[in-house]
Amino acid sequence: MKKKLFAAALLGTVYATSAHADSTGCGLGTMVWDGQQGIAPQVLAVTTNGTSGNQTFGITSGTLGCEQDGVIESSERLGMYTGSNMDALARDMSVGDGESLHGLAEVMGVDAEDRDHFFTALQENYGSIFSSSDVTADDVISGINQTVENDERLAGYSV
User: Fold this and answer.
1) Which of 47, 66, 97, 148 has its CA 20 to 30 A from that of 29?
2) Cα 103 to chain center, whole Å?
3) Which of 114, 152, 113, 149 is nearest to 129 (CA)?
4) Is the Cβ–Cβ distance between 136 and 85 less than 8 Å?
């Protein structure tokens, strides 16, 4: 176990100091440790960005130093958002409301006047979207798209 931890730490250090790691991306961690040099601030910035979900929020909302420049395809954004928020989406979808569903609606471009209907449709199809305990982000996206495509009002929002 110690060897695996050491190997992971070594790999992280090599990555953080490599030429490919000249940027920690965007997010709260990047903003907090902005301007600080060295491995520790880079690792802390990347860790904060990756573990707290703020980078996903920043990307989808265009805040925290993240840009919404249209370079990332909407299907890729949906995949990143869903993969980063699976537990929250399952919880919020089961009750038909919540922050992660609002984020999902934003990523998918659901208009404000269609959101309540969108949330209800997802809640009603929760069992087919989260069909098992080992469902993947791709499975969830497929279930969401199927739900949206089968709903006359929401059909234009499938990704």
Assistant:
1) 97
2) 9
3) 149
4) no
Query: Hunting for tokens 């009603």 — which residue is that?
Result: 124
What average pLDDT does the segment 76-96 reach? 91
Pairwise CA distance, residues 35 & 25, whole Å: 13
Count of domains observed in the chain: 2
Per-residue pLDDT at 57 exceeds 80: no
Structural domain contains residue 66: no
**Mean pLDDT confidence for 116-140:** 94
The pLDDT assigned to 104 comes to 93
Residue 58: closest CA among 25, 17, 26, 103: 26
The answer to the question of residue 97 being in a domain is: yes
Residue 130 lies in domain: 74-157
Structure tokens at 15: 């990555």
